[in-house]
Amino acid sequence: MDLTLPSEDGFHWKDHVLYCEDVDLEKATSRFGTPLYVYSRKAIEIAYRRYADALQGIPHLMCYALKANSNLAIIDVLARLGAGFDIVSGGELARVKAAGGDTKKVVFSGVGKSTQEITDALNADIYCFNVESIPELDRIIETARQTGKRARISLRVNPDVDAKTHPYISTGLKKNKFGIAINEAFNVYRHAAQFPEQLHITGIDCHIGSQLTELSPFLDACHRIVDLIDKLKEHGIELEHIDFGGGLGITYQNENPPTPAELIANLRQILCDRGYDHLEMVFEAGRSIVGNAGALLTKIEYLKKGEEKNFCIVDAAMNDMVRPTLYQAWMQIVPVNTQKLPHDEQVWDVVGPICETGDWLAKDRSLSLEQGQILALLSAGAYGMSMSSNYNTRVRPAEILVDGDKTYIIRPREEVQELFANETRIP
Ligand SMILES: *Cc1c(COP(=O)(O)O)cnc(C)c1O
Q1: Where are the domains of the chain?
Q2: pLDDT on residue 215
Q3: Strand, helix or coil at 252?
Q4: What is the C-alpha to C-alpha distance for residues 398 and 420, in angstroms, rounded to an integer?
Q5: Are residues 286 and 382 in contact, defined by beta-carbon separation less than 8 angstroms?
Q6: Which residues of the chain have pLDDT under 70?
Q7: In the chain, which end has fewer C-beta atoms inside a 10 angstrom radius, N or C?
Q8: DSSP-derived secondary structure letter, 394
Q9: Does ligand 1 come within 6 angstroms of the Cβ of 210?
Q10: What is the pLDDT at residue 168?
């Protein structure tokens, strides 16, 4: 049985029991029930500071990509460290406001911004719209005209580099829906420059994918973007910032992604070499801030031995954590208490109660298990709760945030009645 933890920033073993900071997770589940999301404040802060420290002395805006985990308590923890935010919807803007985040540090990405969302973002005086198409640009011009505001914009360019990650989370290729092709971007900037009353062109932006474990795609993209900045400069369009997006990977199993310090130093070197060290560096990190800071705790309901496979049926399911089935993602799973385990190790598929064959959390894992035991699915802080649903009319898990020896319920477990409270029958 492999009990290696992908990261020790927030979780560690103590006398064969898994702890989040100073909190015994077996005890936490008897108190709060299962399934349960648990996050470490300390791990979030460490991860954020890895970026912030590496950016010291450099003009920068460090944004947290809300969609990775948008609980208000987590937004607040990061806002208190001075973070800005990358949002992809009006709903996320509302969350930033509700958590007391600074909307002047918000960048707004996404291919389908509605007129209402653009209006709200203009009124909130956000830092920048990352524009993903010509019709979107036209809509921003029109909305700015109507509201009497001036929109700060950057074009999200698609640099056509292969991020070498799962196809569903690769975004920087020509065949993806994201951004404006880098070869067209020059003309779109020139078009935008004709509307100085409505638009303030401030930057350029790219986000090439998620869970990137190599430096080279980031550096390739950077070079291509700087080529474009050169060309814009020749034509009198001077930018103020360059936004490198998010996408830095984390360790789930044995990945060894570059550190934020390595990423930043290498990008910085390119900017210095090419005469753009005055440009503000913007980042939109999601997974690498919260991914390793969370775990999903779940109880074994049944052990079901089949002729070909052994199934460990737990009380968490794909509605709580969709990454394994959606991306064939491998996530570490361990018993939270390994003091008194049965001796025989067997190979198990860890599955949930949902009526779908795709409802699995882990496959072919060598584990010694017994009914009633608590398991922890690790590195579940990003794209876990934020992608959850109520499929099969399942209530979503409670979420707790650990701070030292304290635990805070930052979202209680849903009640079944809430799930259909707004549904009505027809006469
Ligand atoms: C999802 C997303 C991010 C964050 O990606 P991570 O891989 O979680 O760092 C940043 N920017 C944009 C535009 C995104 O869509």
Answers
A1: 11-40+291-419, 109-285
A2: 96
A3: coil
A4: 18
A5: yes
A6: 168-169
A7: C
A8: P
A9: yes
A10: 67
